[in-house]
Automatic annotation (TrEMBL), chains A, B:
GO terms for biological process: signaling. It comes from Sinocyclocheilus anshuiensis. InterPro entries: AH/BAR_dom_sf, BAR_dom, DP13A/B. The gene is LOC107657952. This is DCC-interacting protein 13-alpha-like. Gene3D superfamilies: Arfaptin homology (AH) domain/BAR domain (1.20.1270.60). Pfam families: BAR_3. Coiled coil: none annotated. Residues 7-238 form the BAR domain. GO terms for cellular component: endosome membrane.
């Protein structure tokens, strides 16, 4: 139904069938929004959890490499080239795990926070307002019923006034709650757009920062380091090949 | 024990206490190596699994955004700006998930493959060779026992020859297996260095490619896109603020 995007607050007092029907459409839309956001929330939570796990596993790997020299290997304990190479690896991998940790924090603040707020505050508010509206409608119905039974019997003026007062108060309360409910449903149409775009923007900004951090600060120094290590490994491989030949010639 | 790094193959025939003791040191070192690699393997497996999960979760998020326009929202179905914005987000996030998938593949080939090979082929080989060596030693002991019992009794020449032949064959077999076992233990001292450095190099190269891919191809086009979206969201937020003011003035 294109074009419909606002519940008329000015018609809340009338409570017409048209308004009720329009309310139904808004409630359906809210249900569809809830369901869609719930899926998106789960997907983003998976990204966030995986990013945290990646950060932790990278940190663990770095720590294991750092601990290499503390291992009590009965042989090759004097292999300082190997130890210092692994220390360097530990250092660069630790830097990488710091980048991952920064990314995790940014995802928490700029992606998970806004989408969680929308789920737990804005969508939850609608559910509560619907309940409050339902309760105040029931209260009003009760008061109106009491009033209609009143007119058939003879009652004293005091009771009559009390019931009248009750009808008035509950009507006023119902009107307030429906106003609040309608206003929140209207607001949700705007909030849901922000709630979709804000975490996505946060996600993208965090990724861009991560790539920048990685490529500007780390890549260059890593490449130099890797060229050196690469040469060592190549030499080691040559030595290994040489050794294999010796063994085979025995 | 610095300096020790080779089991003497030329002494395998003698089977001296010194050689046996040195073998013990190599076996201890192999056990320590196994234990260290097992921890490192688990940490790398965690990185790899987290990277795969990140790749999958990113892809899922992109797919959900792509599916936004297929959702049957009763309201705002005509919101083409929102739909096309989310399509663009879906596209860039899908590109990012492709980068993650490339990284996953590289980690599989250049990190998980070599460390798995070392675990399942090289370290496993040592275990098997030790068993084979044990069996051939037992066979030789049995043959020698039979021979020593022979000399006390009078046997016919044929049986004597058979037992002699058996001692010779089992001794030859034992010597072959100990040679093989020693050679593999010696080789392991070199292989373990390669097995440490190769997956780390693979890991680093994969990360560098990932950062390059991300910063060269994606970051720039993303930033332009985000500037546009940022403006839209800012406008939307202004509109939202404006709307809140209208509601509050009612």
């Amino acid at each position: 139904m294109p074009g419909i995007d606002k519940l008329p607050l000015e018609e809340t007092l009338e409570d017409s069938p048209q308004t009720r029907s329009l309310l139904g459409v808004f409630e359906e839309d809210t249900a569809a929004t809830s369901s869609y956001f719930s899926q998106l929330f789960k997907a983003m939570q998976r990204i966030y959890d995986a990013q945290n796990e990646l950060s932790a596993a990278t940190h663990l790997t770095s720590r294991l490499l750092k601990d290499y020299e503390k291992q009590r290997f009965p042989l090759g304990g004097d292999d300082e080239v190997m130890s210092s190479t692994l220390q360097q690896f530990a250092k660069v991998i630790d830097e990488l795990s710091s980048c991952h940790a920064v990314l995790s924090t940014q995802l928490a603040d700029a992606m998970m926070f806004p989408i969680t707020q929308f789920q737990e505050r804005d969508l939850r508010e609608i559910v509560i307002l619907k309940e409050v509206f339902q309760i105040s409608s029931d209260d009003h119905d009760t008061a109106v019923n009491r009033y209609s039974r009143l007119s058939k019997r003879k009652e004293n003026e005091k009771v009559k006034n009390e019931v009248m007062e009750d009808v008035y108060t509950s009507r006023k309360k119902q009107h307030e709650t429906i106003m609040h409910y309608f206003a929140s449903l209207n607001m949700l149409q705007y909030k849901k757009k922000i709630a979709l775009l804000e975490p996505l923007l946060g996600y993208m900004q965090a990724q861009i920062s991560f790539f920048k951090l990685g490529s500007e600060n780390l890549t260059q120094q890593w490449e130099e380091f890797l060229t050196n290590i690469g040469t060592s490994v190549f030499n080691m491989s040559s030595y290994q090949l040489h050794y294999i030949k010796i063994i085979m010639s025995q």
